[in-house]
Amino acid sequence: MFTSPCPWPLFFPGSSVIHKVDGRTTLTAGSLLDNLHWHYVTIIRQGRQVNFTVDSHTVTAICKGEFTHLDLDTQLYVGGVIEQNLPHLPTTPNFRGCLENVFINDVNIIYKAKREEPEIRIPRKKKMHYACRDMLLKPMTFAGPNNFLQVPGYFRKPRMFVKFKFRSWDYTGLLMFTRFADDLGALELGLSEGQINVTIFQPGKKKLQFAAGYRLNDGYWHTVDLAARDNLLTLTIDEEEGSPLKITNPFTIQTGDRYFFGGCPQTNNTIRKCETKLNRFHGCMQHIFIDNEQLDMEMILQRQWGRYAELLLGTCGITDRCSPNPCEHEGRCIQSWDDFICLCENTGYKGEVCHMSVYKESCEAYRLSGKYWSGNYTIDPDLSGPLKPFEVYCKMKSYKAWTVILNDRVDGTKVSGSSIDRPYIGNVNYWNASWDEVTALANTSLYCEQWIDYSCYKSHGRPFGYWIGRNNESHYYWGGTFREVQKCGCAINQTCTDPKFQCNCDADYRQWYSDKGYLDFRDHLPVRKVVVGDTNRTGSEAQFTVGPLRCHGDRNIWNTIAFTKPTYITFPTFRPGSSADISFHFKTYRDHGVFLENSDDQLRNFIRIEMNTTHNLLFIFMVGDGIVNVTLRSPVPLNDNEWHFVQAEINVKLARIKVDYQPWAVTRFPGAANRTLRPFLGCLRGLRMNGVPIDLEGKVNEEQGIRRNCTGQCLNATIPCRNSGQCIEGYAAYTCDCNNTAFDGFYCHKDIGAFFEVGSWLRYNIRKKPITNEAAWANWIDPHFDNFSLGYNDTADDIEFSFSTVHTPAVLLYISSFVPDYIAIILKVDGSVDLRYKLGLITHKFQLTHRNLADGYPHYVNITRHNRTIKTQVDYMEPIVELITIVEDARFDSPKSMFMGRVMEVGDIDYEIQRHNAPGFIGCISGVRYNVYAPLKAFFRPNETDPPVTTQGYVSESNCGAFPPVLGYVPWEVDPWFTTIEYVYIHDDLGLFWITGMYSIYVYTYQQKGSYRTNEPKNLDSPSSSRPLTETLRREKKNLPQIEEEFRSD
């Protein structure tokens, strides 16, 4: 250990005169070691590797020399050299300070010196003290926002002498201020932009201002020596007497009785007041001389001749925040008293400590970000890792992006004179990138290929010719083949010149042959060297060409897993050091979950990223100063089952997190968890930590609920959502969203139907008022494809329902509009079904079926129109495709209402509609849907307080018109809404015949969620629209005879 006023360099000579190798290695560590504190130094060497530690900062290097042993002189010097002016010894001054516990290879040097052992030599006339005396250096630290020091001076002297030492990191600050006697003005010494500014103020005259010095805010001690008299001022920096600053302007000097250092006190006294526009000085001062007398601070303060504020006496508390350099990737650190800034220009990185890469990790990442044009791009495969960015050519395709890197062997290399013992080794150097950087690109790509051509003339190929790829492995196969077979492409294609050999160049013919093709095994690429070993015979010659490396894809971007159970995966502990970044993509329907957590073995330090609400992301960490969290509040929900990109960073200055393109949420710094507490269910992909990709797919375990790719329960659902219901992925489970269907139930499998008596009808209002001409014209100019919610100018229709009846004729469904347009499905007298479309002036008639559907059985009708193409289907028959004439408008203008039972529209009604409208539909109809409108569901399962439905007569809920589902009925044992078995009421007025033989017919009934007052059998969250918004809209489902009695009593 030592205490000293000097930095600490370390030299290792290891030069070789024979091979002209400069083996001098210099290591530098430590800063501000001249602070009169003890510092600990350790030097450990193993072969050519050296670890040099000063206090807690370790520098590691490999010596430049070619040897592993130090050939030292017979003498070791401690504290300085004895012989002077020897060329191989350092020229720096001898050490002045204290040393203790000096060990060299476990030999205690100070112990031997105290015992005056013969191998220890101490210079004569030099007295050694075996105790560390206090040095007469008493610095002071200006450390506060209001610091200052006021000391006395000699009043009204014609000469001024001020001298002191200072050290600081600040660019600006007041060093010294004094006001002259007799109101002659004032003099100010200030630090500005690393220079000493001298300013002389004179009443009634323009101030005089001069500057001296350069970069004096470097943290080292600097001496300021000022001498002034009338019309002459001399300023010397660091005792360089050869180039002092001299000012010869006219001014008068009469010293004042007080001097201020570091700042001006806050006072109301206007007499001899200290006034300055400079900031307060922050740093250290010592050796202050006023009029050639050194200040004795203890006496001045003891006798109250001066005063101070926020001053630390007897110590220099300056801190070097730039050593070791906190700026990464060769960023330049500049600092002030209490902060530092990293300048990241021209480094390829950004952020508070130059940690985050400016560039994307691959051409694929550029393509996914919207860069669709080919050209030169700069990529950084390891992002914030140690590898530097480099330029490549990106060839963009619509579905992939090729990365192309050229090399210096593309034009071919001729080889002759090489032998088996001394082969030719052709290194392949890639443009703009080191070998490690090219390897990183290949490692992160999905696919790579590289053309290689080996041509020979009277020269053996294998085993004397081969190529070396990644990991310095030798490979004896050439292009156009597979890595396992170890052959050439001609052997695979059976085109070799001599079938006895597996490569053309194995034959050793006096003729040019070649083995060429693409190498496409990514783990062997890129090609690093080509070795040619048999061209030293007369006439022997070989030539090889290595094409550019071409890769596409990014394995990390699509490295995806899905969590379908409350579980977790583990990786080795991430040790980030002073800075770390984490990035990943996620998608989920859940409103909470922990994405990842990293902690030490004692859970004293940890990092965690989680989602605690639908809009909040938390970045939580503890690094020794208590738990801190950064909260990002997203304006949009994050559990929308869409991919979201999360980035988090923590360094010595701040912690921050962002999602997608939203701003960073930041927590700035002044100067362990239960893994199954809030499990994440959803998908993760592209996880990187400090730029290093994490292999998520390597942790796939189906039994634990970890699946490859983003696949949850919806993909392989045992019972899929029926009737176009949307599957809501819960990853551990799923629910079905039935909002845009005409069905209900957990799987959208429950029909919602009605029984219509004679004269009863139902009207559903699509719109209450027509669309304005301006809105119609705007929609005509810019139509929205399949946007049914507009309610006007629709070019697409989707209609489906099922029904059963024995009565004819009837209008099964009628859709009116605010114009003469309409859609009608008519049950004719003979039981056949027609479709009538009126679009504009012409009414289009289509026969859906000629069969008699008024037979008492349920029948299914589906009608789909897109522009002028109409597709119709009845029951399980083949669909029929019809076309509307091209001269006719293909838009159904401004739909108004839907009618079932009878058409009760006001205004003119087509004669064919009137003819089939009486006495009205009698029977059952179920699952009625027009685009997104489901009138029966809106009536029996309202989700608003005032549903747009009007009824007349007896319309009761019944599933007697339900068509048997194509996928079969849902078994009651897997239906969460199943409660009990009930018998179906058969309407005798349908005229159904009884099947011979008495037997019971029963079906399952289902609890409608939110429509029963009984308790649900399971606690399930379904977004089904069957939940009413008010209690007044609840209905009790009862047996149909009881419902009939209840309605009649009302």
Automatic annotation (TrEMBL):
Matching Pfam families: EGF, Laminin_G_2
Cellular location(s): Membrane
Region feature (Disordered): 1014-1050
Keywords linked to the UniProt accession: Disulfide bond, EGF-like domain, Membrane, Transmembrane, Transmembrane helix
Domain Fibrinogen C-terminal: 354-413
Disulphide connectivity of cysteines: 683-710
Domain Laminin G: 1-132, 138-316, 558-710, 772-960
Positions of the EGF-like domain: 318-355, 711-749
Transmembrane listed as a keyword: yes
GO cellular component labels: membrane
Domain of life: Eukaryota
Protein name: Contactin-associated protein 1
Annotated source species: Liparis tanakae
Organism placement in taxonomy: Eukaryota, Metazoa, Chordata, Craniata, Vertebrata
Gene this chain is encoded by: CNTNAP1
